[in-house]
Design a protein that fits this description.
The protein is of the alpha+beta class. It has one domain: q2cbj1_9rhob like domain (Jelly Rolls, Sandwich). It is built from 12 helices and 12 strands. The protein is globular. The structure holds 2-oxoglutaric acid.
């Protein structure tokens, strides 16, 4: 409630409307039948109730996926990671004078924003998909001028995120939704520090397949959003349930019909630390600036059907546009192999995931010092559609 009050207080004349929106959205989200542990039936198929709920709403909250030990690893790793951030946008050095994270990368890494800003909203960035600009609340006087809020190509910087990516149950879910030969999309961190974290205006993620004759609700893939600290109505992503089935939506019109940026019918992705949300990329979704007191760090990892990316000209949203032929997809998929092995080394009691394309080709990846160099700039090949 403290965060809800703090958030509402940033909305001036709309404070009461924002308070009501946050409270009712939270209640409605908690009433949906789309949360629970990952579970498979006796044939090792994803529980049909999960599949049905995901199809209906476009998202599912998997509870208790990352256990306390793993969360602790991630928290420590992310604290160390933040110390490696450059002191400002494009900077080459961290505060301690060491070369900054990403300073030697050519593929994009950190995206910065003014505190509580909405840098994408209403801009032509990312193919103009963030059609409206959200309210940019005033940050505290002592807030930094600029702060990082997205880290692209995150797996090259964080071994703990790489291990999350290799999680056997999550990869099995990716297989169930996108087929045994599923392909990666991209991996990012969304960093929403209290009082600083920027908004990500309402959007749908897909770009390339809206007019495809094979269009369906899964054609642009999905993201896993693993929560390090949990996600709330104040700091979390909001979604319009069911909107993933409709096609390309005029968001400006939705906002107009709703009478404000608080789009009618939307609900927040509410969950605890260690929960992982599976979120269809076609859902109308976005997040407000984090004016509350709780941090949200999302370990984001997307997956596609192979047919959605094979020989497709990329959207150029996350990297330079290129055609994704077999060789590009195979190269980009190596990270799955490294992730599985990195996880096996840290959690040897778990049965590692077996990725069908590697089995078919006799490929076996070992996570060791040289492999780290292979991941440098790996996101230049993000399968961005
Ligand atoms: O985490 C957020 O705030 C935004 C996430 C998002 O827009 C995405 O994953 O496409």
């Amino acid at each position: 409630m403290d965060s809800i009050e703090a958030c509402a207080a940033h909305y001036g004349d709309d404070a009461q409307a924002m308070r009501t929106y946050l409270l009712t959205g939270h209640e409605r989200a908690m009433q949906l039948d789309n949360r629970g542990p990952i579970s498979f039936d006796s044939n090792r198929k994803l529980d049909s109730r999960i599949v049905e709920a995901y199809k209906t709403y476009g998202f599912y909250v998997f509870t208790g996926v990352l256990k306390a030990e793993e969360l602790q690893d991630i928290e420590q790793d992310l604290e160390a990671l933040k110390k490696r951030f450059p002191v400002g946008p494009g900077g080459k050095f961290a505060a301690n004078g060491a070369p900054a994270l990403g300073a030697d990368c050519t593929a994009p890494t950190l995206v910065w924003s003014k505190p509580l800003g909405d840098p994408l909203g209403g801009s032509t960035l990312a193919n103009g998909r963030h059609q409206v600009k959200l309210h940019e609340p005033k940050a505290a006087d002592d807030a930094p001028e600029m702060a990082p809020f997205i880290l692209l190509g995150s797996l090259q910087f964080s071994e703990t995120c790489l291990r999350v990516y290799g999680h056997p149950q999550l990869l099995k879910v990716a297989e169930e939704i996108n087929g045994k030969d599923f392909a990666p999309f991209n991996e990012t961190l969304f960093i929403k520090e209290p009082g600083i974290g920027a908004a990500v205006s309402w959007h749908q993620d897909g770009t390339t397949h809206w007019d495809s004759e094979d269009f369906d609700q899964d054609i642009h893939g999905f993201n896993f959003m693993a929560q390090v600290y949990g996600s709330t109505a104040v700091n979390g992503v909001w979604v319009l349930p069911g909107s993933h089935k409709i096609g390309k939506i005029d968001i400006t019109e939705l906002v107009r019909e709703s009478g404000s940026e608080r789009i009618k019918g939307t609900v927040p992705l509410v969950c605890g630390a260690g929960d992982v949300i599976m979120c269809n990329r076609q859902l109308v979704h976005g997040s407000f600036a984090n004016t509350g007191f709780e941090p949200r760090i999302t370990v984001n990892m997307g997956f596609h059907r192979r047919s959605s990316v094979l020989n497709v000209m990329g959207a150029g949203t996350h990297n330079d546009a290129q055609v994704f032929d077999d060789a590009v997809i195979a190269k980009r998929s190596e990270v799955i192999g490294y992730a599985i092995d990195a996880r096996r080394q840290r959690f040897p009691h778990e049965a590692p995931y077996e990725y069908q394309p590697f089995l078919e080709q006799g490929l076996d990846y070992k996570w060791k010092a040289e492999a780290k160099a292979v991941l440098h700039d790996y996101n230049a090949l993000d399968l961005s559609i």
